[in-house]
Amino acid sequence: IGRYQLINLCNQAISNIPGITMDEALKARLIAEAKFARATFYFDLVRAYGDVPMPTSVDNAATAAMIRTPKDQVYAQIIKDLQDAVPVLPDAYTGAEIGRATKGAARGYLAKVFMYQKQWDKVLEQTSAIISSGRYSLEPDFYQLFRIPRENGVESIFEVQCFAVAGNADLSNSQYSQVQGVAGTNGFGWGFNAPSDSLARAFDAAGDTIRKRVTILYRGQVTQDGDLIEGTPAMEGVTVPRYNGKSYVPRSRQVPGVNEGAEQNVRKMRYAEILLIDAEAKINKGDVPGAAASLKLVRDRVKLPYIAAPT
Q: How far apart are CA 115 and CA 108, in angstroms?
């Protein structure tokens, strides 16, 4: 329901903004932003459900909501929206505008959509444009990447902007960190979305100690920010109580009177993901050295060994 509420708002903007007398450049940008947002919401829906209802304007909302559109047509609309947005959206923003959709964000989602379609040449067209732009790089410290001071940083392609204003629960309404935060004794959340045993084993099998320590907060662990993770003595579905470290907001950043961790942005797409998408496309094109080079950048950051022939 939430995705369709957001799509309805996008459709209202796309349908009504053209008739407003205003600066034409700003008008074009606002429509492009709405198309970008609509594309991301339909991308979530089509991956989860396949054929889905697809209203695209205020005029066809009632009829289109009653039928399921074939998923190929949904993907075609997603691609069209993103392709419409790319030439209009700016490369970057400054000041209070930081966090709005950019050209890089639209290209990033296009790359991901084309990856799902296995259109490898089109994937590489987008990843190459992002990589060659020089606007993005990897945050050197994997732990700091997920902390509030590094929001909208060098690795950010797109993230949802969240705020915490003391005493204003209506404005500070993000629950992204709250529902996944440490539950129980001295906790600051509900403890949902606990990392699985299989994920922990996968980190161990790969010798991936840096990412494991950041991703999984175990009961009894002390974080780099000095918080003792006390939590609960037992959790259903896992052998050892644990929590999602990427949604962790240190106690020192908790704001009284609002949802726990409401200040933390939701990272939707990072430069590391673009590098991995680029590597996947190159593997499927037979460019093993090129894939290895993109993968190496991601692995070097967390001190993992080079893979010369990734599969």
A: 11
